[in-house]
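Why does this matter for the project? Reviewers at the last site visit asked to see concrete outputs rather than summary tables. In response, this paragraph embeds two records directly. Each consists of the residue sequence and, immediately after it, the corresponding structure tokens. Nothing has been edited or filtered.
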Amino acid sequence: RSQSRSVSRGSRRSDSRSASPGPDRRGSRRSPARKDSRSPVHSGDTRDSRSYSRGRDSRSRSWDGSRSPRRVGARRADTPDYIKLTDADAAFILGKGGKTKEKIARVAGAMLDLPQRSMTLEITGPPAARKRAIMYVECVMAQRVGDVILDEEDPIFKSGCTIVDVPSECAGFVTGRQGAFLRMVEEEYCTIMFFVKLKGESRRPRDTEQMAIFGERRGRRGAELKIMAAIESKLEGHLTNHIKETKSDDPEWGTDIVRLQRREISWALGKQGATRKKLARASGCLVEYIGNFVHMSGDKKQRETAGEYLDWIMDQLHDICEIDTDNRDDVTVL
């Protein structure tokens, strides 16, 4: 038994010793295969691929914070325009919370990007939209230091600008406290507005300031009527002394003007303008009261619908309103 035990023990020891590498026991814990699997880390291949992916991500994020390849591709489809800015100009273009930059982009139909710690404004979008954005940016920068001067021969001015003559004595009233009234009108009608001077000053009446309204036709007309209403409320009779009832024959775009009695205005306007707003929403027509004159702007169907609804509103003031609902596509009877 003693011999057999010693033999078995000896054989086991010799087998275990022969299986181990001998002098390098610590190295036996790490297999050669595992060491090879880690070797690419030191070769630099994986690091190169990582650095490439990071660089690619950083390039896409530097534009708009998005990794979407579709948006990056859309941006590269159009050649961008660049405007160099000063620190003061950059702050003025951004506005409080970036609102001025967003407004310019929204009205122009372009995309504006001003990265942090960069003094270069990038403008992308269709060529016409970029031109509009450049003009609006230049107007904002000019407004910061002095007068905004416009050329009446500029194609953008001819196709997308409306001028309103504002009496100098109520220019502050139209602007509002810290520009609050103008900002409200711009937001409501998707426009951007500046007090400007036209080259030559040939059409400027005395003691007036000129308000330029940029945007789409419908928005410009809505903002124009809102400014005119503010002027009339400040200087009663300034506009209404020269306004007459009219009805447009243009089927695509026009303005119908209806005169109301002074005592009827508060009823047609409603509390805080609620009735006027309701009339405009239901008809799809721009409706604004300038003094005791109701202005309705839109296509022919919109104007006719707004006029009909206005008649019903006024009938309710004097008597019960009777409406024939047969063959109408704008009514539900309950």
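We now turn to the second protein, recorded in exactly the same manner.
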Amino acid sequence: MSISSDNNSVPRLVIKKVLAKLQKEGEGAIVRNGITEIDQKLLDPFVLLVEFSLSLSAGFPDHPHRGFESVTYMLQGGIIHKDPKGHKGTIQAGDVQWMTAGRGIIHSEFPEEEVNNGFQLWINLPSTDKMIEPKYKELSSSDILRAEEKGVEVKVIAGDSMGIKSPVYTRTPTMFLDFTLKPGSQTHQTVPESWTTFAYIIEGDEGVFGSLNSSAISAHHVVVFGPGDLVSVWNKSTSRSLRFLLIAGEPIGEPVVQCGPFVMNSQAEIDIAFDDYQNAKNGFEMAKC
């Protein structure tokens, strides 16, 4: 997977675009839901994508998760993360936390500054991995590999691009790239043909995706690509940069049942997860605290 292409590449065209509408979620939290339940089958293995803005009055006290991985990527401010087992840290601007919930994690998330903006992506786990031991992988901004060429900068959080390969291991094979295209520049990124692929536009209103003849798509849209192995993007603006996340992953092809903080394969497994949490067992022992 690189920025180069050849004549045998099959371009991925845009098959769907969705505006992630702004909405309030509790005190001091404003979110845009980029992936909703209706799109989970189309975007397998991805379950949720939220762009969030939190003030100091917001926050999420201790809550559980099971059955998936979450990726928190901060753009501004910071999120203080803590769990009952004593793991504590702050995800600062530019940092990434890759959390495997597995059989069960309980944690809290609270904003550090007056303005705290970022993304959280949920990636499903196959049934064989849903009950593995939980773990964290944290990357500081300085640890994230990046490359720049011909007006295109990419931060390689997972996967590879422009000859740079991220060392991050993902249980569900995943690509997570943060692109910035200067005015008039373009990029052509190869992606495994079988993988689900979408982009989320962070900034810029004149990005053209998939085909040079396509209409420009504005910020805060999710752009879903069809089959192929090459994603092409052009910034048609003469004055403003285009920034977007390019995310791809290998589909799992299993039933998905999500209820609140749990992502499992059946309603029966969801019921078990709630029972385990309420009774502080099978991965949620720290709920007693």
